[in-house]
Amino acid sequence: MEIKLQEYSIHIDSLAAPLLEYFESHSTSKVFVLVDENTKEHCLPSLNFEGMPDFQIIEIKAGEQFKNIDSCQLIWQRLLESAADRKALLINLGGGVIGDMGGFCAATFKRGIPFIQIPTTLLSQVDASVGGKLGIDFQEVKNSIGLFQNPEMVLLQPDFLKTLPSAELRSGFAEVIKHALIQDKDQWDEIEKIENLSAIEWKNWIARSVIIKKNIVVVDPFEKGERKKLNFGHTVGHAIESFFLNTESPLLHGEAIAWGMLAEAKLSQVFANLSDKHFQGIFDLIERLYQPKPITETIMPELVKSMKNDKKNSFGKINFTMLKEPGTSFINQDIAEQSIIKAILEVNQQLSS
Ligand code: MG
N or C: which end of the chain has fewer CB within 10 A? Predict the structure, then answer.
């Protein structure tokens, strides 16, 4: 299956054929493959097919804490040492960290070399695969250094999800839920029936979710308007994620976003007339799949500070995407600190009862 965007294509469930076609139609001087210890073991063997050119492996450590300038230096250094020129190709084989950071390194090395994304987690397949956002974390602020740049192509292998820990699947599924909530009522109706994620046939779910995101991104590639819908759950969610990143119990991205969606659905009841029934439906699903825990009241000031620092916001205002109902959303709702804290505390209360 192929999903075409303006500048590149996303191929679902085929790896060798699109790669071979790429190498036939592009003159490539050297091929580098960026991996971490997990994708080196579980995913790299898939690149061992007949006709694949020789490549050099660049390995970094797995984990969000390594999505930083030190890892970039290592990648750039390897490219330099191997005399990579502008016709070199970087294949990023891994989850969001590998894709965002590898893409960032490729897009900046010698003012830009081509790169191919092969996302290996559900999160990166349904989210990072579309939209060309690249970057790294800097001084505890997620993705604060980066740029927009499209890859040559994106290859999505549902088979890679078989080796993924269930917590990672659950994390990625938060973006599937988000896509449905902002734009696709029918998919939301399907999602509401899910009891657990173990029996899911991923190929079609991935395709459908990617298409929702694609339809939003093509009309607004640089996030001036419509694309902000994709921030649903992420204003509160990113603040929660950043806070817990530095504790002994960090949350996965999707776990934090699931919490963020609860808080922002609660705000949608007040600011967008989301019905009690619809809020309850969202609450029930997220509680069932994620078992979120209440958030300590004492960290509220820190969460608010972090939301104000978020690159999505300007002039000290905190900006939200609101849900009118599942499948229908609107952007640019400024909400005061006090209302945000109140919503989080109300969700807390409902989680404890
Ligand atoms: Mg996200």
Answer: C
